[in-house]
Design goal:
Layout lengths: L11 H17 L3 H29 L1
Helix pairs in contact: 1-2
Length: 61
């Protein structure tokens, strides 16, 4: 019996949240470059967190 490969994790929600946070920081501080850096950093952290969470849930099954 062959095992199905796990489905990839969609990171759409994390990217939307990161974009909103980055834009808010950039416009709030009037520094768009800082907003871009913050948005990218938030997106990476949220994506890694969700990937680890989903992986842990899959292993528990």
């Amino acid at each position: 019996m062959s095992q199905q490969p796990p489905q990839s994790v969609s990171h759409t929600a994390e990217m939307i949240i990161a974009t909103v946070v980055g834009v808010a920081v950039g416009l709030g501080l009037d520094n768009l470059l800082l907003g871009c850096v913050v948005g990218i950093a938030v997106g990476i952290v949220l994506s890694i967190g969700r990937t680890l969470y989903v992986d842990r849930k899959r292993r528990q099954r």
